[in-house]
Structure to design on (419 residues):
């Protein structure tokens, strides 16, 4: 459920008619609904309240906008960060350092040191090598790092290959068969306090059974580690719960997910941690665009819009589907190919799709663009960096400026020896 609805034939974000925002800010433009964000945050949190002890760390990479993080901080979410930059954002948004977990295979020495200094709550170690490096830094600083070991459970998440992370051939975590030995070594290394295990098998999961299989394997490992005399008090189950991108698609609901976790973890006696991203932010945003022109094509016309793969990369990266809808639909439909202006054939949002009939100058949206949307935007083809707006009832504000090509140009230098 979201708060992007038609009123009198015009698409609104909560109480704001989208054409108002297009006129004030220009297109392309991301529009977020605060009510939708809050609702998703609460639904997920409330569903998991069936578990005895829960900690939520929002996956910042799905939507790192400061205003988004502020809303989630107020809902009691911590942050799952994958870089020093994301950590600084979470702190800037007022998230407590203690509620931040740091994931990622390539945390640098400087990032580890800064995270220790900031006092973040947990390091999700992705290798023995990383653990030993962190131990050295922590010991030198006179600190102890709270850690969990990320395990690669070798389970096929059944999602797009580029967002699968839990197969043996993926770079993430330590191999399942080696995990107990690595855990034992790190647990006896000064500077580290090993407290549990973590996993994250992939994103946009449409079924719960791969998650259940992976969680079950982690339970077996947890018992083996405990039997060898080491404590396991925290299990970080990662993120990955998918959202329907196509109207009518049916996905597992947060309650189904929570019920599955409760069943699998019965009697585990752990603090259960979660790192939801897409399930919180996916539906909270749309990318609004204007039709530049409609060009005759072979079979279907090309609807050329002013948004492109640099603004919303998911279709080009993962063949992802985003529903396309006119802001003021006239009732008729056409079959069309939707493309952006970038000089790459991958700058294609949809081929042979039945859509609202649109013509030059019309406004439209790509729906479910709140996760992995603006955050992946870039300035390819010297396009501006796409701006973001948040709506809250009848209020709205620009929460990220459009960065113009001139600003980017101003950061470039011609060396003296070329001048
Ligand atoms: C990307 C990622 C997440 C969030 O994934 P979603 O599919 O957006 O829920 C959580 N944890 C880790 C370690 C990740 O890399």
């Amino acid at each position: 459920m979201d708060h992007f609805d038609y009123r009198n034939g015009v698409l609104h974000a909560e109480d704001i008619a989208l054409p108002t925002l297009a006129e004030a800010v220009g297109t392309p433009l991301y529009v977020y609904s605060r009510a939708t964000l809050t609702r998703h945050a609460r639904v997920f949190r409330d569903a998991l309240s069936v578990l005895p002890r829960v900690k939520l760390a929002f996956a910042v990479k799905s939507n790192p906008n400061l205003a988004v993080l502020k809303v989630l901080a107020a809902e009691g979410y911590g942050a799952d960060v994958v870089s020093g930059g994301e950590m600084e954002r979470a702190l800037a948004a007022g998230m407590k350092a203690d509620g931040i977990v740091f994931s990622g295979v390539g945390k640098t020495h400087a990032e580890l040191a800064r995270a220790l200094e900031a006092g973040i709550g947990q390091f999700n170690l992705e290798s023995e090598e990383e653990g030993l490096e962190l131990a050295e830094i922590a010991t030198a600083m006179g600190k102890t790092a709270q850690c969990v070991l990320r395990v690669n459970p070798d389970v096929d998440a059944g999602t797009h290959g580029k967002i699968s992370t839990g197969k043996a051939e993926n770079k993430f975590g330590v191999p399942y068969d080696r995990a107990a030995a690595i855990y034992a070594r790190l647990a006896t290394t000064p500077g580290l306090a090993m407290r549990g295990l973590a996993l994250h098998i992939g994103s946009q999961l449409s079924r719960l059974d791969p998650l259940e299989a992976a969680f079950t394997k982690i339970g077996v490992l947890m018992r083996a580690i405990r039997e060898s005399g080491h404590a396991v008090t925290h299990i970080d189950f990662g993120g990955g719960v998918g959202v329907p991108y196509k109207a009518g698609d049916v996905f597992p609901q947060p309650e189904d997910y929570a019920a599955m976790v409760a069943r699998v973890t019965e009697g585990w006696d752990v603090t259960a941690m979660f790192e939801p991203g897409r399930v919180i932010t996916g539906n909270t945003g749309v990318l609004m665009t204007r039709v530049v022109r409609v060009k005759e094509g072979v079979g279907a016309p090309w609807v050329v819009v002013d948004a492109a793969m640099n603004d919303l990369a998911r279709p080009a990266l993962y063949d992802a589907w985003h529903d396309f809808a006119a802001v003021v639909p006239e009732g008729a439909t056409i079959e069309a190919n939707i493309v952006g202006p970038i000089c790459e054939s991958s700058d294609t949002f949809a081929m042979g799709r039945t859509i609202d009939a649109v013509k030059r100058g019309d406004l439209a949206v790509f729906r479910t663009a709140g996760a992995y949307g603006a955050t992946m935007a870039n300035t390819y083809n010297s396009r501006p960096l796409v701006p973001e707006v948040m709506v809250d009832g009848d209020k709205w504000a620009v929460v990220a400026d459009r960065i113009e090509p001139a600003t980017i140009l101003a950061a470039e230098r011609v060396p003296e020896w070329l001048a």
Remarks:
- The two ends are 57 Å apart (CA to CA).
- The first strand starts at residue 4 and ends at 7.
- The chain has two domains: 4-32+282-410, 34-280.
- The longest helix spans residues 209-227.
